[in-house]
Amino acid sequence: MADVERDVFELVVVKDISRFARNTVDLLQNIRKLKSLGFETQFLTANMIRMGNSEFALTIFGALAQEESTEISKRVRGWLYDSVYFSPCGLAQRGEP
């Protein structure tokens, strides 16, 4: 964002909405800030160029990306727990809860 404020870029192209912001609120705030500075933002995977970057569409795609990120985080945490607890030298083998 600092480079955008210094006019280093003319256009912001983002591969995926989930890489642009952590949640829907941050996404909308960043998009609004870029718009106020006169910059266009394009999201490649969501094909937002064709959809016109409407805030409604951004909110929907942002919520989907946020939920996907949450689910991935849950799976990773579960995998880490299982790999520590149920590994050959894990806690379950030692009789610890």
Summarize the structure.
This protein has one domain (2-94). It has four helices and two strands, in the order H-E-H-E-H-H.
Explain the overall architecture.
It is a single chain. This protein has 97 residues and is mainly alpha-helical. Helix content is 54%, strand content 8%. It contains four helices and two strands, in the order αβαβαα. It has a two-stranded parallel sheet. Helix 2 (24-36) crosses helix 4. The model has no long low-confidence stretch (mean pLDDT 76).
Describe the protein's topology:
Elements: H1 2-5, E1 11-14, H2 24-36, E2 40-43, H3 48-51, H4 55-85
Parallel strand pairs: 1-2
Helix pairs in contact: 2-4
Low-confidence stretches: none
Helix/strand-derived class? Answer: mainly alpha
Largest sheet strand order: 1-2
How many domains make up the 3D coordinates?
1
- Rg is 20 Å
Keywords for this structure?
97 residues; mainly alpha; two-stranded parallel sheet; 4 helices; 54% helix; 8% strand
